Amino acid sequence: MSIILEANDLNLRFGGVQAANGASLKVSANERIAIIGPNGAGKTTFINLCTGYLKPQSGRVVFAGQDITALSPRAITRLGIGRSFQIPQLFLDNTVIDNLLLALSAREGSWSPFLVMERHPKAQEMWELLDMVGLKAIGGRIVRELPEGMRKLVDIAVALALEPKLIFMDEPTSGVSSTEKFEVMDTLTRALDARATTAIFVEHDMDVVARYASRVAVWSSGRIALEGSPEEILNHPEVRETVIGVGV
Ligand SMILES: Nc1ncnc2c1ncn2[C@@H]1O[C@H](COP(=O)(O)OP(=O)(O)OP(=O)(O)O)[C@@H](O)[C@H]1O
Description:
Radius of gyration: 18 Å
Structural class: alpha/beta
CATH class of the largest domain: Alpha Beta
Number of domains: 2
Number of strands: 10
Mean pLDDT: 91
Bound molecules: adenosine-5'-triphosphate
Order of helices and strands: EEEHEEHEHHHEHEHEEHH
């Protein structure tokens, strides 16, 4: 299968902390990679390095054959890498649908304070996207009024509105109740499949990892310590003890 993203030997130090320490990952098109690991292992730093929010001191990131290491987050988004955040980055006083349309307008450079969102040429398309990710019923709600889990989904929908070929999701199910997490992930996975979007997601919930990842990368001290199928990784004695917190 073709390689869509290759991060090669990324290094970044913050003062005394080596947040990326030779981090490398090769991703094939249509994979669903879960990144797991203890707090502070460098998972979010890795996403920031691949999406242009941080620049490595050495190493490079290649996306669809193009070196994107030095590009801005905006340029990387335009090339087809989307992301959602650990803490959603949304316009809290706007509606859900307007957040999607504002993201589109910003990308197209067509935003203006006089833009009437309901008349946006892609409004219908964005309602269809909301339907696909199970958020149609809250499309007209103001984001500030929504619970955290719902805001995370809206943040993912905003990323998907830009039609990425690959999406990074930072803890997509945190804040989602345990009774709803599978339903949410089923819906999200269907939307990703329908659009042939490759996904890399940081996840602390091992039930979600077991069910939705095609491959698992275990982060430790700024790089991958282990990788393999969910079955191999979740049954690995060291992972069970240090990441999952289940003694063997
Ligand atoms: N902007 C920054 N300035 C200084 N140190 C940072 C910065 N960002 C991250 N770090 C440090 O780098 C290390 C890796 O942090 P990072 O957030 O990438 O870990 P993580 O695996 O995503 O953790 P968590 O699961 O808690 O989100 C941590 O020690 C963190 O304190």
